Amino acid sequence: MFCILLGLGLSSLGSAIVNIALPNISRSFAGNDAATVWVVNAYQLSATVCLLPVSSMVESLGLKRIYAAGLTAFVLASLACAFAPTLPVLVGARLIQGAGAAGLSVAGVALVRVVYPRGMVSKGLALVALAVAIPGALGPTIAAAILAVAKWPWLFLVNLPFGLAVPLFINAAPPDVRFPRALDLTGTALNAFGFGLFVIGVGTLGSSDARIGIGEIVAGVFCFGLFIRQQQKHPMPMLPFDLYRIPLFSLSVLTSVCSYAAQILAYVSLPFLLETRMHHSAVETGLLLTPWPFMTAVTAPIAGRLTSRFPTSLICGVGLTLLAAGLLLMVFLPTNPAKSDIAWRLALCGIGFGLFQTPNNTAMMTAGPIGRSGAASGMNAAARYVGWSLGSALISLIFGVGGDHSAIFCLVAGMTFALMGAATSSVR
Asked: How many Å apart are CA 317 and CA 311, to the nearest integer?
């Protein structure tokens, strides 16, 4: 469990410390904001595209191998990010990093379901939420401290010592029970083209000819339609249709997509709002963003205890409503707000997100049989990264057409997704 939590925390730290450096990275490569956002988009897109193939490979290669490979790829890609000479090379390295994160996300959560008995799964998943939230809480502060004394490449170099966890995990993890299964190359390709073209198309709408973006979106939807049809005929599909027939599972997945879209819309746009419009330094921005993930870390274990006493639909609905309220309050900040005005609003967002996260993940992971833990974990991670990818693509679109008010428009979009998630959760 120590190794599992360490790897999941690493992937969270690697994502959390990059966002506030986007303005610095943009200036370093003399790029525009819309292009620099792809440093985040590439990571989310790669992870999203890889999740279903990785979850299908878990049964044949085993959780142990997938997790170790994901951690190794993540650390090596961090080294490549640090020494990237150009923005396209940095984006390419982030693609590899995202693929590693997919392996960590799928195998990590599935290993928790294996380690803990069913009655204690919510406690294990609360630890996972802490392992993700605490580095997220420390990420902006660590980034602020690093940027105060060094340049942005050091944000990636801090990941390298975590590579020592690979041999420790290999030594500690028990042997896998594997079932031979061939990789579905056709399904993998259709999945990649479907997600990839759709996300890139949404981003293209704001930065290039709208007709090209619409064409990419249509092509992506078409490829994804072919993917679903191909999976329905496949004897061992990557898409877990058996789990989707369980209403609790499918509604939990949809709730997760909406909530993580709201989160990324806020996470990526807030540094631009605080640094560009309010003229805070990178160090100040990092400190101001810390209350959100910090309160998520504080609230997650409390939400885990509440899961055994109250309905998941109620806890998640209240949480996502609080998240929407916090984002709405950020939209109506005074012209020259005090730092405390910003901090308590973001703390409210963190409390709301923490209330949602653990109960929703528990519902997804326990809705099906334990033998389908790998598939459930894959869809748990897929919902998260689909939400992040959708939100990231919308950020590219909004920054391309929104002008000086782009960050505010992103917060409004995030609030809308949070309310959609609350409504979906209530249906459960």
From this structure: 10
pLDDT-based confidence at residue 57 (cuts at 50, 70, 90): confident
Residue 89: other Cβ atoms inside 10 A: 14
pTM for this entry: 0.76
Q: Do 49 and 195 form a contact (C-beta atoms < 8 A)?
A: yes
| C-alpha span between 165 and 171 (Å, rounded) | 10
Separation between Cα atoms, residue 20 and residue 287, nearest integer Å:
10
- What DSSP string describes 113-170? HHHS-GGGHHHHHHHHHHHHHHHHHHHHHHHHHHHHHS-TTHHHHTTGGGGGHHHHHH
Among residues 331, 339, 324, which one has the least CA distance to residue 289?
A: 339
| Contact criterion met (CB below 8 Å) for 105 and 374 | no
Quick: pLDDT tens for 330-359.
999 887 888 899 999 999 999 999 898 888
Q: How many Cα atoms are found within 13 Å in the side-chain-facing hemisphere of 59?
A: 20
What b/e string do you get for 317-344 counting C-beta neighbours within 10 Å, with b at 16 or more? bbbbbbbbbbbbbbbebeeeeeeeebbe
